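Tokens help. One example:
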Amino acid sequence: MAISWAHDRRVLKSVILLLIGAICFTAPSLLNAQLKPSPMKIGVVNSELIYQAYPEFRKMEERLQREAEGWQAEREGWIAQMRKFEDIITDRENQLKAGANTFSDKKKTELQTQIDSLKLEMQIRYNQQATMEQERYAKRKSELLSGVLETVNKQIEAIGEAEGYDLIIDAANGTVVYARDPDDLTDKLLRKLKEK
């Protein structure tokens, strides 16, 4: 009996040593495999080329151009108002020239003040109209563009998800156009900034 106990003990000890050896031998490679991050899959698109090649962008530009041309009647009314201002200014300048030798200094100053005031008002109206037209054009372009961009962005997202991309970057301007499950680091950054 004592022999079998000693024998069993030696076998058990050998098995335990063998297991410990196997664990020590394989553990580093298992840990390494778990600690090594898988490589990131990054894709690139060029929005400038997409803008040139995708027909929906051209259609959007053509539609915007047609709409802007439709605003021409309104623009012509505004131009007519500007011409009236120019005519009034020209008339006052002619009055001032004609009376240069006969008008009193008070009358000359009064006419020059009117001319300056009209020129200023004309410039203000011109700037307001130009700004309004630019804003109107930009707003309409943004409205039309948003529908096309939504389609493009959905397709980028679909490609990113289907093909396992972690990140897709626009080569034209360096912006990220797709990121799979991004971590929002805003709170961490704010905490770090407050610590400094």
Remarks:
- The CA atoms of residues 24 and 163 lie 38 Å apart.
- Residues 1-6 have pLDDT under 50 and may be disordered.
- The radius of gyration is 39 Å.
- The first strand starts at residue 42 and ends at 45.
